[in-house]
Structures are given as C-alpha cells and as structure tokens.
TrEMBL record:
The lineage of its organism: Bacteria, Pseudomonadati, Bacteroidota, Cytophagia, Cytophagales. It comes from the Bacteria. The keyword tRNA processing does not apply. This is Gfo/Idh/MocA family oxidoreductase. The chain holds residues 64 to 403 of 406 of the full protein. The keyword Oxidoreductase applies. Residues 4-127 form the Gfo/Idh/MocA-like oxidoreductase N-terminal domain. Residues 137-249 form the GFO/IDH/MocA-like oxidoreductase domain.
Length: 340
C-alpha cells in the first residue's frame, strides 16, 4: 500500500506544488487535508477524491489519531505555526514533514524534536533540493574535493516580494523576512557543498525600499559564513530585488556553479570543465517518496529535524551578527551534514 499523506494548510505551496507532486509519487499519495476554509475542503475533496473522513479543520485535526489512512502529516503553514502543528501531528501518532524553516526559534525546534522522540515517529523538513541531482553533484564535487579544496563560495536567492502572502512580512507569523524564506537555501547550499558547518558568521541588513511593506522584517540581508579552514561563503537574500539564484564554489583547481540554483525546475549547472548536463526532476515527488521509503523501511531521513534545528541556529546567528555588527561564533552548532 502507498502511505497516506495529509497536507495541513492548503495555500500556494500545497496547491501549486505538493498536491500535484503527490500525483506522481510511487510510495505515497494524498490521503487527507486540514484546512480552515470549508469551500477549499469541498473543492479538494472533489478534485482529489478524498473521503469525508479524511477532511479536517484546525480544531478537528487531532482526530487523525484514529485514521489509519493517514501515515504522514505535512505541515505547510506560516512559519510560526510549524511548531504547534508538528507537535500535534506527532502526538496524533503520525510521522511528520514540516516545511522550512523548521520553526521561528531554536527553542521551538527543540520542542519539536522532543515530541518526535517521545512519539517514536520520524520528523523531517521539507528540504526539496536535497533530492535534486544538480545539488547532489555540487555536494559530490565539493565534499570529495574533485577540484581540490573549496576555498570560496557565493550564494544568492531573492525575488521582489509582491505581498501576495502577507504573513511573510508579519514578524509574528514569519519569524523574519527573506533570510528565513529564501536565504535558508543559500545557508544550506553552502554547507552541503563545503561539507562543513561554518565556525562563525558576520552579517549586514540590506537597505529598506521606500514604503512600509518592510516595517517588521528585513527587506534584504548580506552575510558571510567563515569555515575552520579559512574558506568563506558570501551570501545575499532579498524581498526587494530579483537576485540571480546562484550557488558557486571556487576550488583549488576549478569551479562549479548552479544558476538558476534554487527554483522548482529549470536548474542548470556547469563546472570549469563544461556543462553538467543533468536532467531536472520533480523535486517534491522525490522528497516525499524518499520520506515514505524511510518510514516504510525504518531508515533515517537525510533531512531530519536535527538539520532543521542546525539551520535555524545558523539563521539566528546571522540575525545576531546583523543586529550587533559583531562576528558571531557558530561552533556550538551541531554538524548535521548531508552525505554524498
Ligand atoms: P500561503 O500563504 O500560500 O499558505 C499558507 C496557508 O496557511 C494558507 O492556506 C492559509 O490559509 C493557512 N493559514 C492557517 N492559519 C493561518 C494564519 N494564522 N495566518 C495565515 N495563514 C494561515 O503560504 P505558502 O507559500 O504556501 O507557504 C507555506 C509554508 O510553506 C511556509 O512555511 C513556507 O516557507 C513553505 N514553503 C516552502 C517552499 C519550498 O520550496 N520548500 C515553497 C513555498 C513555501
């Protein structure tokens, strides 16, 4: 049997990416929904042929505990709600995928990890690029030092924010601006290409454009991550500007680069030896099938909650560096690393 996945929050990402991807998965299928909008519930029920017994709202979702058709709960809500709903799903006895960023504080991440441990269920983060072959190639080239030691990295990810999802500029719901939402991909890309977590970070807020869209969260951030061997990564993210979407590494005897690097498709890669010529895949289908495989075969996921915690710790360090203007040590961040 295919494992049943319930999506919690039927916004843009669930509607545009996850539900369509679940039509292409081999090991799991869309088996339930949680939504606060009755009209959406009806429409999804019809469109995806869901039984009424697998349609919940935010108050009734705990009753999933009695629904054997749902094995995995996927939390696709505004960032500040990830912790509460992840914990409720774990307490209902389900395995959980929680969207990125894992939570809006390190303390919440730790509560989520404790809940997963107590429930004896797997908790993974919706890190789709860890299942994407261009990114695997960056991991291989960087970590195996195919062109020698990686000395310098550059990553940027940003787009002009149109306020179509207003919670993203509401600090209470988002936890922060583009660093939480888009910059997190730069943090990860650098860490898995280098194969190390940084030992320190420095950071600077970008200018706020005119208008009051960015009253509560940063409009842009530039930061540097420093590694133990002296190598550095320069990163940038923004909601005020369309950035190039790039992940590049300079090594002792060559370079490798993805551009565009972070989208759902259309990724392209090259190295100092020529184009990568790698096919794009349905990232979300791969990610969810991999998690289903981990659940079915009791294997650890490559994107566990501990990795989500690592990234939230690094993000908090970047905000601290920007707020103080000081270099912030990150040597206390546990190196949960992707293997090639
Ligand atoms: P969205 O605004 O389109 O959807 C959020 C959903 O949450 C909506 O259906 C909304 O009704 C619901 N919701 C429930 N309670 C709410 C509340 N109190 N306030 C506001 N909305 C509430 O957002 P989205 O773009 O789908 O993002 C959802 C999550 O998915 C975020 O954590 C985001 O970071 C993540 N995401 C990940 C990727 C990825 O590539 N992995 C891409 C997009 C979004």
């Amino acid at each position: 049997r295919k494992l049943g996945v319930a999506l919690v929050g039927l916004g843009k990402y669930s509607t545009g990416q996850l539900a369509p991807a679940l039509q292409q998965t081999q090991l799991c299928r869309l088996a339930g929904i949680v939504t606060g909008t009755p009209a959406k519930a009806k429409q999804w029920q019809r469109q995806y042929n869901l039984p009424a017994t697998s349609v919940y709202d935010y108050k009734t979702m705990d009753r999933m505990a009695d629904n054997p058709a749902i094995d995995i709960v996927y939390i696709v809500l505004p960032n500040a709600l990830h912790a509460e709903y992840t914990i409720r799903a774990l307490e209902a006895g389900k395995h959980v995928i929680c969207e990125k960023p894992m939570a809006t504080s390190v303390a919440d991440c730790r509560r989520m990890l404790a809940a997963a441990q107590k429930a004896g269920k797997q908790l993974s983060i919706g890190y789709r690029l860890h299942f994407e072959p261009h990114h695997h190639e960056m991991m291989r080239l960087g970590q195996q030092q195919v062109f020698g030691q990686v000395k310098q990295l550059v990553a940027d990810n940003g787009f002009r924010f149109g306020n179509d999802t207003p919670w993203r500029v509401n600090k209470e719901l988002s936890g922060g601006g583009p660093l939480q939402d888009l910059g997190i991909y730069c943090v990860q890309g650098v860490v898995y290409t280098k194969g190390q977590v940084p030992v320190s970070v420095t950071a600077k807020y970008g200018p706020k454009p005119a208008g009051n869209l960015f009253k509560e969260v940063e409009a842009a951030m530039s930061w540097q991550m420093q590694f133990a061997d002296g190598s550095v990564a320069d990163c940038r993210t923004s909601y005020a500007e369309n950035l190039s979407s790039r992940l590049r590494a300079e090594a002792a005897r060559g370079w490798m680069e993805l551009q565009p690097a972070f989208g759902y498709g259309g990724l392209r890669g090259s190295t100092s030896q020529g184009p990568m010529n790698i096919q794009n895949v349905n990232q979300q289908a791969r990610q969810m099938d991999d998690f289903a495989d981990c659940v079915l075969n009791n294997k650890p996921t490559r994107v566990p909650g501990e990795m989500g915690l690592r990234d939230v710790q690094l993000i908090e360090a970047i905000y601290r560096a920007a707020n103080t203007g000081q270099k912030v040590s990150t040597t206390d961040v546990k190196a949960v690393l992707d293997k090639t």
